[in-house]
């Protein structure tokens, strides 16, 4: 085996130390023009999101519906006017009564009606409008949380690809140095050509993966830019730091399965209330309704041939839907009662699913942190293994194949650590999302 000069060995030791020092645990700082932070991404996404805009519009729509229902508490007023003209007399002359015929007429009337009792339908309609407004507000808040969740997921996907690029760049530099060494040795006639080809094959595979990864990063960056509403630039980087990730037990408490403050639970409760109100409204259609009103009208002719006449009257109406007691009205009530039972069953299933999802997200978060610890340990072992094999190779105690295997193992360990870090970030945002603990940047018009 080849024995290298002392200065060559020292130089390669220094290169190895530099290689190990380049292993990435976080992103390097980039200029503001080329980088975007997670906080900046969230603010941009909240301003840009059409889902949030639609959520706010839905609240306005619900408020308009509430005003519509409130109008039912006030009288309904109608006014009509009619004018007639005929080339011949509309009313022929009547001797002794109407000496001249009438060829024009007009009439005007107004009527006001106030519902006194409608079986509680008006009251329940207003309660349903209030419920719809409350539901719209909850859904609008959920839209904000959903945008924050997706923004973080896309952000950390971009970070993951960037970090994987750096792993490949570091290992490319290592293989380049090893390739240069093999070229020198081959030129000196100290090794066979197949050893040089081994390094070239590994390096070519790495370069191919590097090219694929760059294309994936650009695609992820375009997707991210379109979602958060920032200008796309191939040079833009997501700025993040993986250091000092504390165990979840130190940051959060185990989730409480009392769901009263959970937005999804609140929506389930609202669905039950809405179903109950619809049942009451269906029952109201079977009850009598009472209304009172006043009507005034005036008629005459434009040329005063017929003197103007004015009259007014008050009235009351009582409507009893007798046929609905055994017909369609009764069946509508039955349908609403069945739907109310369905809503209750869906509520129970929904609560169970929420509890399972929240508990799962907690254990997923704990597991993700454990994966980081194992990945750190494996990376350290793989680096030490590579160092040992490099020392042995430089000393002529191991072959090139073993060294390349050790390099590939170290590269995989580095890659796994990056995956473990980004996986933890995704599990953390999912946990916060499911437990309604997301922090929303201060944006005007949002919660």
From TrEMBL:
One of its GO terms (molecular function) is porin activity. GO terms for cellular component: cell outer membrane; efflux pump complex. The keyword Ligase does not apply. Its main location: membrane. Pfam families: OEP. Keywords: Cell outer membrane, Membrane, Transmembrane, Transmembrane beta strand, Transport. It is found in: Cell outer membrane. The keyword Metal-binding does not apply. Belongs to the outer membrane factor (OMF) (TC 1.B.17) family. PANTHER family: OUTER MEMBRANE PROTEIN TOLC. This is Outer membrane protein TolC.
């Amino acid at each position: 085996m080849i024995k290298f000069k002392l200065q060559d060995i020292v130089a390669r030791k220094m290169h190895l130390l530099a290689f190990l020092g380049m292993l990435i645990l976080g992103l390097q700082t980039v200029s503001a023009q080329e980088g975007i932070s997670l906080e900046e991404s969230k603010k941009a996404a909240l301003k840009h999101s059409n889902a949030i805009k639609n959520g706010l519009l839905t609240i306005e729509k619900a408020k308009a519906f509430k005003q519509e229902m409130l109008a039912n508490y006030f009288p309904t007023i109608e006014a009509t006017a009619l004018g007639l003209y005929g080339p011949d007399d509309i009313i022929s002359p009547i001797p002794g009564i109407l000496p001249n015929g009438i060829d024009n007429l007009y009439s005007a009337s107004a009527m006001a009606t106030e519902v006194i009792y409608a079986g509680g339908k008006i009251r329940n309609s207003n309660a349903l409008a209030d419920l719809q407004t409350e539901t719209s507000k909850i859904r609008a808040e959920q839209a904000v949380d959903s945008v924050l969740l997706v923004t973080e997921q896309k952000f950390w996907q971009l970070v993951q690809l960037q970090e994987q690029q750096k792993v490949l760049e570091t290992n490319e530099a290592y293989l380049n140095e090893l390739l240069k060494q093999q070229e020198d040795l081959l030129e000196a006639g100290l090794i066979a050509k197949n050893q040089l080809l081994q390094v070239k094959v590994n390096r070519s595979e790495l370069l191919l993966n590097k090219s694929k990864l760059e294309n994936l990063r650009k695609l992820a960056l375009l997707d991210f830019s379109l979602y958060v509403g920032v200008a796309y630039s191939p040079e833009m980087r997501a700025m993040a730091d993986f250091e000092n990730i504390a165990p979840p037990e130190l940051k959060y408490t185990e989730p409480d399965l009392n769901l009263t403050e959970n937005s999804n639970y609140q929506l389930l409760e609202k669905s039950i209330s809405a179903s109950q109100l619809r049942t009451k409204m269906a029952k109201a259609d079977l009850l009598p309704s009472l209304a009172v009103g006043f009507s005034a009208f005036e008629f005459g002719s434009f040329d005063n041939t017929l003197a103007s006449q004015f009259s007014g009257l008050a009235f009351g109406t009582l409507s009893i839907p007798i046929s609905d007691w055994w017909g369609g009205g009764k069946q509508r009530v039955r349908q609403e009662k069945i739907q109310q039972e369905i809503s209750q069953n869906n509520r129970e299933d929904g609560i169970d699913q929420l509890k399972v999802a929240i508990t799962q997200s907690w254990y997923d978060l704990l597991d993700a942190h454990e994966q980081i610890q194992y990945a750190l340990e494996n990376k350290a072992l793989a680096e030490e293994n590579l160092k040992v094999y490099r020392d042995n190779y430089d000393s002529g105690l191991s072959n090139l194949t073993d060294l390349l295997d050790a390099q590939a193992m170290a590269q995989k360990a580095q890659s796994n650590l990056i995956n473990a870090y980004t996986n933890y970030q995704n599990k953390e945002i999912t946990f916060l999302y499911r437990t309604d603990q997301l922090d929303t940047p201060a944006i005007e018009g949002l919660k």
